[in-house]
Structure formats: C-alpha cells, structure tokens
Hints:
Layout lengths: L7 E3 L2 E3 L3 E5 L2 E2 L4 E2 L4 E4 L1 H20 L2 H17 L1 H12 L3 H26 L6 E3 L4 E7 L3 E4 L14 H8 L4 E4 L5 H18 L6 E4 L1 E2 L1 H9 L5 E5 L2 H13 L4 E4 L5 E4 L1 H20 L11 E5 L2 H16 L8 H16 L3 E6 L11 E8 H6 L12 E7 L2 H7 L6 E7 L7 H12 L2 E6 L39 E7 L21 E3 L2 E3 L5
Parallel strand pairs: 6-12, 7-23, 9-10, 9-13, 10-11, 13-14, 15-16, 15-20, 16-19, 18-19, 20-21
Antiparallel strand pairs: 1-2, 3-6, 4-5, 7-8, 8-22, 17-18, 23-24
Helix pairs in contact: 2-4, 2-6, 3-4, 3-6, 4-5, 7-8, 9-10
Amino acid sequence: MAPQVHPVLIDGQWRPAEAKATFQACNPATRKWLPDEYPVSTWADCDAALDAAALAATELRRLPPEQIAAFLETYAARMLDRQAELIDMAHDETALPKSPRLADAELPRTVNQLKQAATAAREGSWRMATIDTQNGIRSYYAALGPVCVFGPNNFPFAFNSVAGGDFAAAIAAGNPVIGKANSSHPGTTRLFAEIALQAIEETQMPRATVQLLYRTAHEDGEHLVSDARVGATGYTGARLAGLKLKGAADAAGKPIYVELSSVNPVIILPGAVKERADELVAELTTSALMGTGQFCTNPGMIVLLAGAETESLIAELATRYQQAAVGTLLSAGVQTSLVESIEVLEHSGAQRLTGGPLPEPQDRFCCGNTLLRTTAAEFLSHPHVLQTEAFGNCTLLVVAESVEQIHQLIPTLEGNLTGCIYSDRNGTDDAAYDLLAPELRQRVGRLLNDKMPTGVAVSPAMNHGGPFPATGHPGFTAVGIPASLVRFAMLQCYDNVRPHRLPPELRNANPNGTMWRSIDGVWTQASVS
C-alpha cells in the first residue's frame, strides 16, 4: 500500500496539492523515515492561498474583536481536546520528550499564548488609539493583511506556523495566516491546522483565516513573501534561508520579521567565580545542554577572566560535559550544521576540551557535548568567524586577561537575543559591571543578571528580539503580548473624518469601556467628553 500524500489546506478545504515532489519526516531518535508523505507545493498552491487570504483579510476587517477572540479561545480549547495526539506526533517527529517538554511546558505555553492573544484582541489597548480633538486627527494600529508564517524546527508547538506566537499575534491583530510548515514536523502542523479549521467553523470565521502549505521551492518561498497580496511575514529559522527571504521581501517593500541566529554571550566576572563556582558550573551545564542546546536563547559563548579559579571552573565544566547524557538532535541537517560549525571554530583557533562528532554509525542524530575555548586576543583577531553559531550542544569559552579586554571585545559582538553578566553578591564586581553593562546593553534584546538566558517567559514585558542578526529589526519582539501584535499592523490615521465613519476604536465613546486610549495627551479608559 502506497503511503498517503497529505493534502494542503486552502480556503477552508483540504485538497490535493499542485506538487511535483513529496517528502517525509524522519524520527531523529531512530533515523527512520515516518510513513506519511507531504507535498512540495508549486506556485499554483501559493497563488490560490494568496487569493483566498486576500478575501479573508477583507472579511476579517469587518468582524468585531470579540469574534476573533472567540476563535483564538476555541482553538486553544480544541488543542487540549487532542493533546495526546499532538504530543505523540511531535515526539515521533522531533524526539523531544513527551514529559516534561511537550506535555508540561510547550503545549501549556502554546495554549496560554492563544488565550493572551484573545484577551489583547478583545480589549484593544494594543492598538494605541490616539485622539487629538483640537486638530480633529485620530489614529490607531489596524490589521495589515495576509501574514505568512515560517515556523522553526525546535518548537513544534510554541512557534508552530499555525499555532505559535507569530500566528497568535497575526490573528489577534486581525490578519489571516498562511502557514508554511517546518519540514521536521509536518504531521504536527497538520494536526494543528485540522484543529484550527474546526475552530474556524465553530466561530464562523472566514474560511481562509488559517491555511497550510508544507513546503515550497526556495524561489516560490521568495516569491511568496514578496507578493503584493502579502501584508507581512514572520520567519524563525536558519540564517542563510532567512536572509534570502528577507532580501526578497525587502526588495518588494514588504515587512518581514526574521529570527536568524544568536550566540547569547554570558560574561562571568571574577568575583562571581570566586564566590560560587560550583553553582555557576551547574547552572551553565543545565542551561547549555537543555534540549541538546537547541534553543535560540542557548548560552553559546561564555566570557571569563583568566585566573586560577577560572581554570578550576573550566576543568569542572569539562568534566560535567563529559558526564552528561548526550541528547538527540532534531534532524540530520542540525547534526551536519553543528559538526560543520565546530570545525569552523576549531579551524579559527578554538581548542576543543571535550565532545565533538561521535563515531558513526549512531542510531540517532547526535553529537558529543562539546566545550571549546579560546582567548579574548584570538577572538579580537577575527571576531566574526568565532561568533559562528553552533546550534546544539556546543559552548565556546573566551578567556580574557582583563576587564578592559572584555570591554574591547563587546563592541565586536553581533546583535543577540540575550546577554548576561554574572557578578558577586558583595559588590566587588560592581565597577566591572558598570563598565561592561552599557556596552552589552546595546547589543542584545534582553539583558540578564545572574540568570541563564535559556527559556522565554510569555510576559507582556518580554522582548524576544534584538539587533541583527538576532532578528531583522531591533524594535520588535516575537514574544510578549500585546507588543508582538504591532508587527502585523499598520498605523492608520483619520483626519477630519466624520464621527460615524470612524472605526469604533476611534469614536468618542470607548467601545468596550476597558480600552486604553490617548485622548489629548492623556491615557484613559474614559470616553471623549
């Protein structure tokens, strides 16, 4: 019996794809192909999805926020109805543990994101409605148009193209979504799309509110993000592919929000090493090897000051890396990329203390827990190549001769999602912190003290963004509702427009009594008097 080729979801219907090829997902823990096949869509599928999304965008602009919120909440509830099926599928496709990773952490986070997005859509303060009564000018953020979402391989739930954070933000802002599944977990994405379609039908949303394609040719992906019908794109994934999409979208003047790469530097000052070296080793080992290092906020670069205490810490860290279980990588591509990155770092002068490629054959995708070291002087001689992201269970230690040398190193760092400084608790590191923190602050989206960066809280105050190449624009976040919604909105201004022609959010009466609006320079929940 031939394996099933799954259909694509276009305009509310599951239909056979216009495809010239198919692909299969691979179980990383066994290296065995999973039975189902998925289509590589041609431009015909993209074109049909764009036409449907354009019509859905027009319909969505007419809907009350309550209906959009109801869809997001219904979708979240239906996910829980099928959670066992989702967890089983994601485990087979990614080898991520069912518990605690998928069942206890990622699925609850995904459901919570959708609920937070529903609250933001319903309440409306994210729109930043601004009313100038003296000049008769009013403005707010409104839906931009169809949004394409490209999901990553490492979060099959929380960043899924038809369920994750970009998706939730785009829908809450009033846009339809065309999801491009990650090839590592197409089955998981298919299940989400099935659940989303059920929620669409239950809440009477436009049929093309959520559409799904599994894979396209690279040129079709570039065509997709630059098409005139697209409002914006959200992309999380590999740097090279992301830059190609960004180039195409930029050339067409289309917004694209890309998350590309980040080594997330952690600076450990000497007082902290002297005060609590054992704690630091434990925290670093746990953070760096969690999920086999396959987090975008993984601490991939640790900067230390030379000294006897530092050498003891490094020796203990190497021992911990040797003793820790070797996790499973998400795919053959991740394994190949990680090994190549380790080779680049070593070729550039980094010394391997432990780890590296494991002898073949292995029954799963994996690489030894790898610890490398180099000097700050070596780093400063070619900083670009020594910032090569080794996505996985690999950490580079950079040992400096002085705080001043660390201060020289920081300006050579690329933009990162996070940066951290560990200092002692009695104040002896304060002068060094005061010197280094202002420089590091400008090169990271989120600055941490005495805390490893792995993990991203779904908090309104969270910034999951940063200067290039961490993301394509330092002014936006992919996590943190309601701020993440603004990426998928346009600022619309109304000048001398008659009151009955204004959108409800800009009329004199507060549309729901809870929305915060700026009226003549004062943020208030009151109506215009």
